[in-house]
Amino acid sequence: MPWSTVLRVSVAPRIGLLLIVWLLAYRDSVTELVTSGYWDSVAGQSSSLLVWTAPAVAACGAWEGMRVRQARTLQGAPARSCTTVSLAVLSPTLVLGVLAVMLSLGLLLPQAEGTPDRITAAILVLELLVVATHTVVGYVLGLSLPRLLAVPVALVGSFVWMAYPAAMNVFWVRQLNGTNLAECCELDQVAAPRSIFAPALVSIGLLVAVWLVTARRWGPRLLAPVVLTTVVAVSAWIVHPLGYRAAESRPTASRTCSGTHPQVCLWPEQRDAAKDVTAWATDAYKRLTAAGVTPTAQLVSRSSTPTSDDVRALLALSVLPKDIPACAHTGEWPGSTAYGPLSVWLTITAGADAQVVASRYAPPEVEAAKRVLEQSQQDQRAWFQQNAKTLTRCDLQPVL
């Protein structure tokens, strides 16, 4: 059949127009979640749009399968094999899936810098595999189900599988449909290989199970649920250690460190701002030590576009403990009320803009810190030391 005829009778071009409009409408909701300049984050967030792409191609595949079934193209003794005929019929839908994946990535490309790495390529391959799987599953549903059920079942079933697991508390289920990579990545993270391999394995298992279902003999058909169950079980075992996370720690070898007070370590995406970040961190360090506070000796920012206030706040808050004391798990912890005022005082002392800091904390916490800032440096140091002790104990009352 000529390609012009295939495109003319296929539903994919018409559904494709609606899908493009839909993806464009959701661009902003995805864009704001991207870690700017980081390819792994761009690719990971693009996978969230599979929630719309997969059901669209599944419905198209079901329509094409239903049309082939009505025409009885696969019956009798055709000159071409069933696989060849099916690929010819599905080619517009497969092209639609590829274009939708490329568009999903292209919408976020303005936030990417440099060149993509192997992780980015692996995520894209996974997305293409997911799209191909939903197309084929939809096609087989079209060949198997009654005419009025094929497209609705393919559309709704695909959407439920892609969207619903994200709301489940059974975390490993989230990892199996290919969309959980949207949980990745901050600058200090990379996509965990498990989070890519497991959904790829599930997609391959679905393809094998569908192929067995289309066999003419009952033996292979009975193997289909066995294969699918085994693949899901293995995939669940693979991703179980991750919980809901799709990322793991990024190798520190890719960081560049300079300076001494503090030592500033930057990821490749931050190196354009190295001079400013170092200057801000050095100034904040001097201010804090002059106030009698000893901040961290090494500064690592997770923001791809750090500002002066961000850097100063990060260095200032490094003074405070990251975890609550053990006694707080079983009883009252009076020192919890001191965390806010101490954070405000530290951040402003480090040189951050007072108005910006005030916008990030509750007004009573800001007022308490401002009253302290009006006192002498010696009194401020005593106030900090007295209240800082309450953050690690449960038997002291803060005096704010």
From TrEMBL:
InterPro entries: DUF7224. Keywords: Membrane, Transmembrane, Transmembrane helix. The chain crosses the membrane at residues 43-63, 84-109, 121-141, 148-167, 196-215, 222-240. Residues 264-394 form the DUF7224 domain. This is DUF7224 domain-containing protein. The lineage of its organism: Bacteria, Bacillati, Actinomycetota, Actinomycetes, Kitasatosporales.
